[in-house]
Amino acid sequence: MNLEQYQKFTAETRERRIAWWRDARFGMFIHYGIYSCYGRGEWIRMREGISREEYLNTANTQFNYKSGNAEEWVNLAKKAGMRYAILTTVHHDGFALWDSKTNKYNSVNYGPHIDIVREFVDACRKHGIRVGLYFSLVNWDHEDGGIACIEDMAARERYLTFVDNCMRELMTEYGKIDILWYDGPSPLRNAEEWRSIERNLMIRSLQPDILINDRSLVEEDFRNCEDNLVFGPLVGDWEACLRFSHTAFGGVDHPATLPFKDNAHDIVKSMTVCQYGGGNLVYNIAPNADGSIDPYEKETLETVGKWMARHAEAVYGPTKRGGCGANGISTSAQRGNKVYLYNWIWGGTFARINGYKNAPKSVRCLTNGENVDFRYENGVLYFNNLPEKSPDDILNFAVFEMDFGDEEPIYNLVPANMIQFMNI
C-alpha cells in the first residue's frame, strides 16, 4: 500500500475514531523510567555519557517503583478533569516498562520486577480514562538502533524487526489501546526507511480504533506541538504537549525545579489557548523514582480539576479553530453558535469587546450561572454591572458564555471601526 492509499484508508474511519478525543480536550502525559532516579532529565544517559553498567546498577538499586502507584497517576488524571493518559512505555534510553519478550531490558527483569504498563492500563480502565502508550523509535541501548542502521541494511532489518515485535506485544497483550504516541524518529530519515506504513497497518489491524500521532513521519490522526502553543502551522487535529517543569519532562529534582514550574493558572490559561486553536492539551507529570507524584504537581492538578469541573460546559467538546476573539485579558473559543470567554484577569464591574459584527442573544457567566447585563453598540459589546471581584473563587478565572442563537457569530480581528480610526 502506498502513502496515498494508506491515507485514504485511515481517513475512511477517522471521524468515528477521533470523536472521543475531540470531546476529551485534556489529557495526562507521564514520563517515567530509570532517568527518574537522577533528577536531571530524561535525556541524562546520552547527555552525561552514562554507561550501560551504571544505568543498570541504578535500575537495580534506585528504580524502586511501588506497585499501585500507576493507579495514583490515573486517579490524579481523573481528579484533574483529564480524559486520557499517555505513559512512556519505552523512552530513548531503551528501557521498557512492560514484560517484553523482545526487549529483555525491562522493568520485569530489572529494578522493581513489575510490569508497569499492565498496572497503568488496568488503572485507566478502572477509572474510565482512555489508554495512551508512548513509544520511542530511537533507542540508545539497542546495538542496531544507532547510526549503524542508516547504511547497514542488515542492522536496519534487525532493528525494524525488533521495533515491530515490541509494537506487536503492546498492541496484543494489554487489551484495547486508544492512542499510540510515537516519538524520536531517528536516525532513519523518512517513513519509507522506518517502514512506517507497513507497521502502522499492522497496528491498525490489531487495534482498529486506535489513534496514532504523526511522529512516525506519516501524516496520521493528529499532530503534536511539544513545549509550545504554536498552532498556526498545524492543520487538522492537533495537541499541545506541555510540562510542569521547564527544565525537563521526566526525572526532575522537584524541589530544585520548583521556581521553574507552572502553576494552576498557567495550566488553565494554556488549555484556553488550545481551545481557541481547536486543539487538545496533554499535560506532563514527572513521578519520582518510586513512582510517587510530587506533592506540588498533585496539589496543582487537583486545583485545576476543581476549576474544570465548575466550567465543564466550556471545556469539553470540539471548538472551531481560531473562531472568535476576546479582549486583552481573556481569550475565547467557539463551539457552534456559542462563544466562551475565558477571563484570565478580572477587570471590575465593566468589560467590553470590540470586533463582533453581530450581537449575542444572551450572555451568562458560567462560573456563577447568572445572566449578564449587556448591550451592543457600533460593533462593541459592553458587559455592565458585573461583580467587583471575579466570581471564580478557585483561580479568579471566570468564564462567560455568549449565545448567538440561530446566527453564526461574526468576528473580525481588526474591526471596521478601527480600520477607519487608523485611517488604513
Low-confidence stretches: none
* N-to-C CA distance: 53 Å
Main sheet attributes: strand count, strand direction, barrel closure: 8 strands, parallel
Gyration radius from CA atoms, angstroms: 24 Å
Strand order of the largest sheet: 5-4-3-2-1-8-7-6
Percent of sequence in beta strands: 15-25%
Any idea what the shape is? globular
Number of helices: 14
Helix content: 25-40%
Rounded mean pLDDT is 94
SSE pattern, N- to C-terminal: HEHHHEHEHHEHHEEEHHEHHEEEEEEEH
**In total, how many beta strands?**
15
Structural class: alpha/beta
Helices and strands in order, then pairings?
Blueprint: H1 3-24, E1 26-30, H2 44-47, H3 52-61, H4 69-79, E2 84-90, H5 116-127, E3 130-136, H6 148-151, H7 153-172, E4 179-183, H8 191-194, H9 196-206, E5 211-212, E6 223-226, E7 238-243, H10 254-257, H11 264-277, E8 280-285, H12 295-310, H13 312-315, E9 330-335, E10 338-343, E11 351-354, E12 362-365, E13 373-377, E14 380-384, E15 398-403, H14 416-422
Parallel strand pairs: 1-2, 1-8, 2-3, 3-4, 4-5, 6-7, 7-8
Antiparallel strand pairs: 9-10, 10-15, 11-14, 12-15, 13-14
